[in-house]
């Protein structure tokens, strides 16, 4: 067994573990005392059906993912709104499969001491941090994780948000106890500050880092120093 503290790192929608590792390499290289784990989401994304590929930025992103990794575009779930005409409720389709997968991943590779995530991965990280608390041992989703899994000591949330569907509200009540660092970009056009703030409000021990960038990982020395300090 490794003696290093282990951090589970969850990528965003249409990314994968290898690409996320590349995105955060400046941070991870500066923290050799930690072991960083970068699993791929279990769901393959048909990126052409999820993004406007006529937009140069989207095409550039798709090309970069394919250049850096053979895992393709991945996700932890697909968010779908309800269709009341057909009596269908909305939700995160595929969430249970991802919980099963992460539960087995942790069981096979060993305990994790912190969880971080970016965007969709940040929302998933928050849900995992909540579910792994003892007070949610009877939550319906908890059965997808190992019975004796240990909760992480901390979470790092990059461009995160609270799950917007009401069936997940119970996860956030009465709150998440462990220390959480919320990293928010001032220019984030994909996850607006109101969504991040809704998640911050249910975390009882929060630290907030607001950086000058957008929907990305902060790059300044000062911002990264805040992340280092939190993890230490």
Automatic annotation (TrEMBL):
Q: Which SUPFAM superfamilies match?
A: alpha/beta-Hydrolases
Q: Does the keyword Hydrolase apply?
A: yes
**Pfam families assigned to the protein according to its UniProt record, in alphabetical order:** FSH1
Give the InterPro entries listed for this entry.
Answer: AB_hydrolase_fold, FSH-like_dom, LovG
Which GO cellular component term is one of those annotated?
A: cytoplasm
- Source organism's superkingdom? Eukaryota
Residue ranges constituting the Serine hydrolase domain according to the UniProt record: 1-223
Q: What is this protein called?
A: Serine hydrolase domain-containing protein
Q: Which organism is it from?
A: Dothistroma septosporum (strain NZE10 / CBS 128990)
């Amino acid at each position: 067994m490794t003696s290093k503290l282990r951090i589970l790192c969850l990528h965003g929608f249409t990314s994968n573990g290898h690409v996320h590792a590349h995105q955060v390499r400046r941070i991870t290289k500066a923290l050799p005392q930690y072991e960083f784990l970068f699993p791929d989401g279990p769901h393959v994304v048909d990126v052409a059906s999820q993004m406007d590929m006529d937009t140069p930025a989207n095409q550039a992103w798709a090309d970069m993912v394919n250049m850096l990794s053979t895992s393709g575009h991945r996700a932890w779930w697909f968010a779908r709104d309800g269709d009341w005409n057909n009596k269908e409720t909305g939700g995160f389709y595929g969430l249970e499969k991802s919980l099963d997968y992460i539960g087995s991943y942790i069981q096979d590779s060993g305990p994790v001491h912190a969880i971080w995530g970016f965007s969709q991965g940040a929302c998933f990280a928050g849900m995992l941090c909540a579910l792994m608390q003892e007070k949610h041992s009877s939550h319906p989703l908890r059965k997808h994780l190992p019975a004796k899994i240990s909760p992480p000591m901390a979470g790092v949330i990059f461009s995160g948000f609270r799950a917007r569907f009401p069936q997940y509200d119970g996860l956030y009540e009465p709150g998440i106890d462990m220390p959480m660092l919320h990293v928010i970009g001032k220019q984030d056009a994909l996850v607006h500050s109101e969504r991040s703030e809704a998640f911050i409000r249910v975390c009882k021990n929060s630290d907030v880092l607001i950086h000058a960038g957008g929907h990305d990982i902060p790059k300044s020395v000062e911002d990264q120093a805040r992340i280092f300090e939190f993890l230490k």
